[in-house]
Amino acid sequence: MASVRYDPEDPPEQPPEGCTDPLLWRVAHALHLDHQPESDNRCTCGEIFPCPRAGLAARGLLTACVRRPTDPDLSDSAGPGRWSRRSI
Question: Which residue intervals make up region (Disordered) (predicted)?
Answer without folding.
Answer: 1-21, 68-88
